[in-house]
Task: inverse folding
C-alpha cells in the first residue's frame, strides 16, 4: 500500500516530535536526578558536621567529668593520706554518671594506684601513655586513642572481649589476610591532681570504649535523620570506624543485625585513611549504595586511626529529609 506524500511528511514530523520528546525527557530526568543527588550530597556534608559535633560533645562530656573530679578536695585529701580506697564509692558514682568504661588513678611517677572499675589490677606503670604523660606535666588532655588487647586487658577482660571482632567479608572491601581485630578505640581524658600549692600529686584518667558502643552513632541518627525508614530500611546511618572496620554502626545487614565487623569500600579506605582526605561521594555500604560523607578520625598525636561516616540511602524517596538541628552544625 502506498503512503501519500502528505502522510509521509506527517509521519516524519511525528517521528521527529517523538524523538525530540524522548531526548527532552531524558535531559530533564538527568537534570532532576543530578539535582537530587547534589542536594542529597549537600545534606550529607551538613550531617557530617553534625556528627562531628556529637562525637566531640561526648568527648567533652567525659573530659568535664574527669576534670571536675580531679579538682575535688576529697580526691586530693585521700591521695595525700594514701587512703585511695576511701573514695572508691565516689569514683564508682562518677563511672555510672558519665557512662565510663574505665577510671584510673596514678601517682606522680605514673604508677597505677587503683583502677576503680577493676580494683584487682594495679601497680603497673602508665608513664608511656601520652595522656598520663601530659597530665603529669600539669596539663589536661582529651581525645581519641587506640589501645591494644594487652592494654585493654589491664582495664578488664570483659572490656577486651567487647573490643574483639571476627572480620565479616564485605563486597568491595580492600583485600586483607587479617581475620580478626582485637584493638579498641577509646574516647579518653586525663587531668592532673594537685596539692594546695599546685604541685602535681598524680593524675586521674578515664574514658569509654567505642567498640560495640552505639550511643554516639544512634544519637547522630536520631538527631540528624529522625530515625526515618524507607521500605523498612534506615534512610540515614552513621558509623565510627577503627581503621576501615565498623566498630560502632547503625547500618543494618541483610540479616537485620548491626553491621559491626564489616569493612569500608576499598576506594574510601584509600582516600580517607591513606591520603587523609574526606570522601564526599556515593559509596557501597555493606549491601547497598548510599550518598555518603567520610572523614578521618585522628588521635592526640595527629595519627589517622579511623573514620567518621554518615550516609543517606541512595534510593530514598523525594522530597527526602533535612537534619533537624542545623543550629548545631558548624
Result:
Amino acid at each position: 500500500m502506498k503512503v501519500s506524500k502528505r502522510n509521509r511528511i506527517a509521519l516524519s514530523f511525528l517521528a521527529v516530535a517523538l524523538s525530540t520528546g524522548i531526548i527532552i525527557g531524558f535531559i530533564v530526568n538527568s537534570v532532576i536526578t543530578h539535582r537530587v543527588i547534589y542536594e542529597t550530597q549537600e545534606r550529607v556534608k551538613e550531617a557530617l558536621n553534625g556528627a562531628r559535633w556529637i562525637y566531640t560533645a561526648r568527648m567533652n562530656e567525659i573530659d568535664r567529668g574527669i576534670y571536675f573530679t580531679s579538682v575535688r578536695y576529697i580526691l586530693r585529701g585521700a591521695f595525700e593520706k594514701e587512703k585511695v580506697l576511701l573514695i572508691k564509692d565516689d569514683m564508682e558514682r562518677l563511672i555510672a554518671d558519665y557512662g565510663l568504661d574505665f577510671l584510673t588513678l596514678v601517682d606522680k611517677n605514673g604508677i597505677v594506684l587503683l583502677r576503680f572499675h577493676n580494683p584487682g589490677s594495679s601497680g603497673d606503670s602508665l608513664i608511656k601513655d601520652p595522656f598520663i604523660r601530659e597530665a603529669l606535666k600539669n596539663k589536661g588532655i582529651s581525645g581519641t586513642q587506640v589501645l591494644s588487647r594487652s592494654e585493654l586487658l589491664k582495664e578488664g577482660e570483659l572490656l577486651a572481649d567487647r573490643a574483639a571482632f571476627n572480620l565479616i567479608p564485605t563486597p568491595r572491601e580492600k583485600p586483607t589476610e587479617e581475620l580478626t581485630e582485637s584493638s579498641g578505640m577509646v574516647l579518653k581524658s586525663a587531668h592532673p591532681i594537685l596539692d594546695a600549692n599546685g604541685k602535681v600529686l598524680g593524675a586521674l584518667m578515664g574514658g569509654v570504649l567505642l567498640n560495640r558502643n552505639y550511643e554516639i552513632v544512634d544519637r547522630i541518627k536520631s538527631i540528624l535523620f529522625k530515625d526515618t525508614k524507607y521500605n523498612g530500611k534506615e534512610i540515614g546511618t552513621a558509623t565510627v570506624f577503627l581503621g576501615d572496620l565498623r566498630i560502632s554502626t547503625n547500618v543494618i545487614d541483610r540479616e537485620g543485625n548491626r553491621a559491626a565487623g564489616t569493612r569500608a569500600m576499598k576506594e574510601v579506605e584509600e582516600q580517607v585513611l591513606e591520603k587523609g582526605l574526606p570522601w564526599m561521594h556515593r559509596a557501597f555500604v555493606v549491601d547497598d549504595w548510599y550518598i555518603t560523607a567520610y572523614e578521618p578520625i585522628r588521635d592526640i598525636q595527629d595519627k589517622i586511626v579511623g573514620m567518621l561516616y554518615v550516609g543517606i540511602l541512595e534510593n530514598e524517596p523525594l522530597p527526602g529529609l533535612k537534619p533537624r538541628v542545623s543550629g548545631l552544625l558548624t
Notes: The first strand starts at residue 102 and ends at 107.
